[in-house]
Sequence to fold (496 residues):
Amino acid sequence: MSATDGRDGASGAAPDLRVRAARGTIVSAVWLVGLNVLSLARGFVVAAFLATTDYGTWGVLMAVLATVVWLKDVGIGDRFVQQRDDDQEHAFQVFFTLELAVSLVLTAIMGLLIPLYALGLGQDGVLLPGLALALTLPGLALQAPIWVHYREMDYVRQRLLQSVDPVVSFLVTLALAIAGLGVWSLVIGALAGCWLQVAAVLASSPYRLALRRPGGALRDYVSFSWPIVVAGGSGLLIAQGTVIAGEAAVGLAGLGAIALANNVTRYTGQVDKIVTDTLYPAVCRIADRQALLEESFVKSNRLALMWGVPFGVGVTLFSEDLVRYVLGEQWQPAVVLLQALGLVTAVTQVGFNWTAYFRAAGRTLPFARVAAITCAAFLTTSIPLLFLDGLRGLAIGALILAVVQLLCRMHELRQLFPRFRWWRQASRAAAPVLPAVLVVLGVRLALGDDRGGVAAAGELLLYGAVVLAATAWLERDLLREAIGYVRGRRPEAVAA
Fold:
């Protein structure tokens, strides 16, 4: 496929779109996987310097902020990438106006939610840190110029700008946590990362920021985005329901365990978003070419499964060692949740990027359907199980919810890609992991109860080595193709 296949009518002399998209997906994914490791490490490393109650307070704040950000993520940037206006600066300013308006409204909403949470939970400690954290929302709106680089598939500049926040947040948070600032180390770190990234983005913006009346673009945007809003509302209910029910069922220390375990799904969610978002501009350009759409979906999903399934299973396999030898015994209640969310991570990788393909096709209604079913499953399984069996019940509920979401996702995907068979993807991804798990369990059986931290670290290295070797052999053709794209070789050369 050449660049002339895109709907922009780009010149035939432009770089091949397949190579450009594949290189951007792989390179930026690898780059930002590393950056998001910092976020994951921040969550676990800082836990060593905080009390469980401090971490529980941070869990409450993150639940509120994540919920508000979900509501903010209503497809404004996606719609900007999809549009083909003749005056791109004007189009950018229209969508920036919408983004800023939504962000200011949600900042006010968060300012109201935090006092209500403090009052409802009886935890005054969340009030001031929560109000301070709300100041990140206007900062996210001012980072809108990143959309322009994203739409133009200028991945290097986009990723450089997006790297400011996680790097600064990690360094500031770690320094302040060591200094003994408790939950404020996380809050100040988040603010520093967000606003320094704003400064970098504004300095590199190709268009000036200005407010424009949306006009007819508003109606078009609403028809595109209302199912995304419904999906965000489902996320709101699940996040808030977990916090409120968790505080009632297991207390603030239990919420700390939930927040710690959620680092796993938050990390994989961020990585999945990186891959999906990187691919989205290219998907928009080939939205009317069914064969290419299906090929890109299947191959990108296979690449994601190569890391997602081993990572998730590895978390399940080594969670107890992580707590025993790294975090400390005070985090022992979190083990069962870590193990469950590791398996959830592996399951959710199957068809993880389905939303990009439906958005590119303008078919967002399935988002609302899946969200409604997910929300109903959460209310009828996860919440009752949490009250019946505490954190273990919540872990079982998370596994049930992951299976429900998988079945819904696969049903919708069959409407877009009738030939897609999810079980083939899942079995292919499980093949390199199974021997690694068996080897580690065999070593543990041989060592018995005398194994210590050094043995656990050796088992982790052994697990990774077996997975890498098995993946390199079983997926050698796809890996060879992917490496060829990264090197800039055209599809014909790769096939040869």
Summary: The two ends are 16 Å apart (CA to CA).
